[in-house]
Amino acid sequence: MSPVVVVVEHLDGQVAKPTLELLTLARRVGDPVAVVFGAGADALAPGLGQYGAAQVLSVTDPALDDFLVAPKAEALAQICARLQPAAVLFTSTLEGKEIAARLAVKLGSGLITDATDLAATDGVVTTTQSVFAGNWTVRATVSTGAPVVTVKANATAPEPAPVEATVEQVEVSISDAAKTARIVSSEPKKESGRPELTEAAIVVSGGRGTGGDFSEVEGLADALGAAVGASRAAVDSGWYPHSYQVGQTGKTVSPQLYVAAGISGAIQHRAGMQTSKAIVAVNKDPEAPIFALADLGVVGDLHTVLPAVTAEVQAR
Ligand code: FAD
């Protein structure tokens, strides 16, 4: 089978869960080749091998750490020229999308963003996307060159397929033209102790119905080991940081369970959460549009319902 390049996201010696999902999808269309930027490929390789990456390419040019995305796109273009992959896969993060777009231009091929599935028929890679606020499902192929695809976190469950992973150090040559935007400093986000919103298996979101008090939303999130999200009405009111906004102009999440508390279910909010596997809505208005989408609807005051559910979960 043809190689499929998977760009690895890693932090503090850990492979991010969406990368394991990419490896799982990559195996459907070819043989995954994991590309690790920066130090640590040796330590990461066994974990990548667990999910089917027999080949791990380690790229450690200092320009990759010192500059924004352009050197990574250049390095990947050189790797693709050598491997002639069937596809190149990224997680749908802001950085992933930017590198993917630059790479697609360099390869003269097509870019598909926010895919939720991949398949191969007669060697042609087909992607699935949910578009127009989730109202349409699109299957697409790229007609020229290797498709460059970004895939939404939680698109699939990671499935192990253990192989022995060998690490190869790859030398790349980064041009001066790619060394334009230098990273001056970077600081880790303050730890909330909760999972990252776009990667979490469970998300509990609050809206205007919280009245500005997110403690009950956070309480349930912590009882469930979930991430916290918010509607735009809540973040625009200054009740929760913008980086937690779910929706068309916020983050797209696709967890196993999404709890919408005091959220009406406007189409722009739905655009960011409607591919969740199970949706639970808590709303005091029985006519709220969110109930049309919910697998389980609770008509009630969130200030009563959330603490009761939290206590129940904690008691188990
Ligand atoms: P509301 O619509 O006001 O709903 C509040 C709900 O809480 C109501 O259903 C009410 O019955 C319920 N409620 C009130 N009190 C309680 C209680 N005590 N217990 C239980 N339920 C209660 N929105 C987003 O969320 N994300 C986006 O990315 C986004 N992008 C947008 C982009 C554009 C271009 C535009 C025009 C809008 C966008 N919006 C977005 C805004 C969107 O249209 C809605 O205004 C917003 O989602 C509403 O947020 P909400 O559901 O919290 O508030």
From TrEMBL:
Keyword Lipid biosynthesis: no
Quaternary context: Heterodimer of an alpha and a beta subunit.
Listed name of the protein: Electron transfer flavoprotein alpha subunit
Family label: Belongs to the ETF alpha-subunit/FixB family.
Database matches in InterPro entries: DHS-like_NAD/FAD-binding_dom (IPR029035), ETF_a/b_N (IPR014730), ETF_a/FixB (IPR001308), ETF_alpha_N (IPR033947), ETF_asu_C (IPR014731), ETF_asu_C_CS (IPR018206), Rossmann-like_a/b/a_fold (IPR014729)
Annotated function: The electron transfer flavoprotein serves as a specific electron acceptor for other dehydrogenases. It transfers the electrons to the main respiratory chain via ETF-ubiquinone oxidoreductase (ETF dehydrogenase).
Lineage: Bacteria, Bacillati, Actinomycetota, Actinomycetes, Propionibacteriales
SMART domains referenced in this protein's UniProt entry, alphabetically: ETF (SM00893)
Domain Electron transfer flavoprotein alpha/beta-subunit N-terminal: 4-187
Pfam family, one: ETF_alpha
Gene3D superfamilies for the chain: HUPs, TPP-binding domain
Record keywords: Electron transport, FAD, Flavoprotein, Transport
Cofactors demanded by this protein: FAD
